[in-house]
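Protein of interest.
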Amino acid sequence: MISVRPRTRGGSTLRIALVQPPPRSEYDQHWARFPSLGIAYIASSLRASGHSINLLDGKLAGLTVDDIVARVGEDRPDLVGITCMTVEFPRAVEIARRIKRVHAGVPVVVGGAHVNAVGRQALEEGEGFDYACVGEGEYLARELADALEQGADPATIPGLISRSGDDIVVGAVRPPPDDYDALPFPAWDLFRPVDTLPVITHRGCPFQCVFCSHNSGFKPRYRTPGNVLDEIEQILERYSPRRIRIEDETFGLHMGRTKTILEGIIDRGFHRRVQFSAQTRVDRVDEEFMRLLKTASFETLELGVETGNPEVLRRIKKGITLEQVEHAVALAKANGLRVWCKFILGHPDETHATIRDTVDFIAKINPHQLSVSIMTPFPGTPIHEMALRGEGGYRLLSRGWEDFDKYSSGVLELETVSLGQLKRYQIGCYVNLYIRNHRYRELVRLVSANRAVGWEMLRSAAGRTALETVRRGQLRRGHRVPSAFSHTGDAPARR
């Protein structure tokens, strides 16, 4: 067990470094424009408990792994916390390992969506981690810091996984907080100023989509409308962003409460000071909701559609219809909202025909903005289990977490549709949308504004095509297929 001796100088607080790993490439930097809500909540909770926080933000502040390790070596904090998504986990492992070289005695704890899904595996794969947090981390992190400060054994803290010599101790399941209004608002003052700040009004999602890990659980837990409005007011007074993004998985899940929030935004005059955006489901909207969104200065409404084929919608348990999609998009446009639709290619047993349905449906509904990702079997999802078992027509190409990027690298293909073909369809969705709807200038602007992203997508598609050509040639000659394309069993495919 790693412990921190009780401090006597400068008060009884710990100096804690919280780390957000940097993007892996220029392509990833495109998605690193907004601060992390999770680490901001952890920072505010620890600070409210009296601890001193140093945020080492590899995304917004542009810190490299070298920068982060050097800062830890110079500052010598009493505790280091690292957050990560799945694709960031190898970078988190590297940071922890290198921190241990320059500051061997410091405890390192890892948390975030990936750790929530894999649990003890995080410590098995990351030798530099002493602890892993599973569950909502605001109080968990505070209890860990307090235990280390007091020299107590933190292994009994619910939700904590601890390294004890060669053993790994898994704590009891941690229930979510009883009162979300009691949480301090996120510590945005620790981040570089940005144009957009996130707000979350509830956690948990009751729907059963097979590609989602339900990182916050299935049961919705709500903040009161007044608490949400007070946070928005604080954000406007202290940080003056141009935009506030509601991070709820479904804004409008509890529609009466949601409309109360929207009416509060209007009553308090927030709509005259900032623009908003949010994500919802197409089966949650009505005319009054759309009108309130527009009046409350919501600029963009994001809609998860996923596919343009009705049978695929049923298989992935999305619980919506294409008719509802068309109605929601039309209703949003009629009320002057910008529509951002999101799709996935490579659903279970997907075929070229069902993918072409998606390509055509995207052009038909003609959203203002589009995101198309490749199915990625994130841990904790039914899709992940299907991929491991080879069900749904899936072939898992890699188990390297660095490849689990739904827009870039890709780790999954279908028996009938290769990854290279999926990536070409991905590009085709965008091109078809703009050309079919005669939006040529927008296509040019999109390419010009996102050259790094576009080139990465093209290079990835071209690279997969070349590898597939090699694979087909080797198969014809009776040669062994490269491991990245022939993964079976439990051994990880190496690339």
